[in-house]
Write a structure and sequence with these properties.
This protein has 6 helices and 4 strands; from the N terminus they run H-H-E-H-H-E-H-E-H-E. By secondary structure, it is α+β, with helices and mostly antiparallel strands. The protein has a single domain, classed as NADH Oxidase (3-Layer(aba) Sandwich). Helix 2 crosses helix 5. The longest helix is centred in the middle third of the chain and has 18 residues. It starts with a helix and ends in a 22-residue tail after the last strand. The chain binds flavin mononucleotide. The site of flavin mononucleotide (FMN) has 13 residues, from strand 3. The site of flavin mononucleotide has 13 residues, from strand 3.
Length: about 160
């Protein structure tokens, strides 16, 4: 699947807006992810407001793309789940699907880690006034790319990491 190899973290964006259709396409891919027992623990917050994006950018010293992107997706998880120990794995698959779809749409995106850093989680919770029962997992800044970093994924293949029995 070539979209996997076309994806790279993009941290610079033009001012062009990201359409609601593109947001729905990205989140449709996110919700297509596998999850333990098909528990689908995800909830998504979509933020365009500049002041809110600024608050999200302040949640982590590595979250400055939130300031530059026209749109930030906050990936959250429902705490109440049948298989709580699997929640982070479910959410990782969900975020990765979203990044691949964004790349396939010609958009640029970057994953910013929030969970399980308590200070980052609290900052995102406050910025978005998240309800009880929901925890922030990751931020994904999305925009039209203003730079085109060379995708590195294909070059990471390392035959020595494969252990045949
Ligand atoms: C769990 C996780 C957390 C990350 N957090 C950040 C972050 O806070 N800020 C950032 O700019 N990039 C972040 N990244 C992106 C990585 O830096 C990036 O994926 C890595 O350098 C490989 O580059 P590539 O995505 O272009 O292949 C994160 C990626 C993952 C998977």
């Amino acid at each position: 699947m070539s979209a996997i190899y076309q994806r790279a973290s993009v941290r610079q964006y033009t001012n062009d807006p990201v359409t609601d259709d593109d947001v729905r396409a990205i989140l449709r891919a996110a919700m297509a992810a596998p999850s333990a027992g098909n528990q689908q623990p995800w909830e998504f917050w979509v933020t365009r407001d500049e002041a809110k994006r600024e608050e999200l950018a302040a949640a982590s010293k590595y979250a400055t793309p939130c300031r530059r992107a026209p749109l930030v997706l906050t990936f959250c998880l429902r705490i109440e789940a049948r298989f709580p120990s699997m929640l982070q794995q479910d959410m990782g698959a969900c975020v990765e699907n979203a990044l691949i779809e964004a790349a396939d749409l010609g958009l640029g995106a970057v994953w910013m880690g929030i969970y399980p850093e308590a200070d980052r989680m609290e900052a995102v919770r406050a910025a978005l006034a998240l309800p009880d029962g929901v925890e922030p997992f990751a931020l994904v800044a999305v925009g039209h790319p203003a730079d085109t970093p060379e995708p590195q994924g294909a070059a990471r293949f390392d035959d020595t990491r494969i252990h045949w029995e």
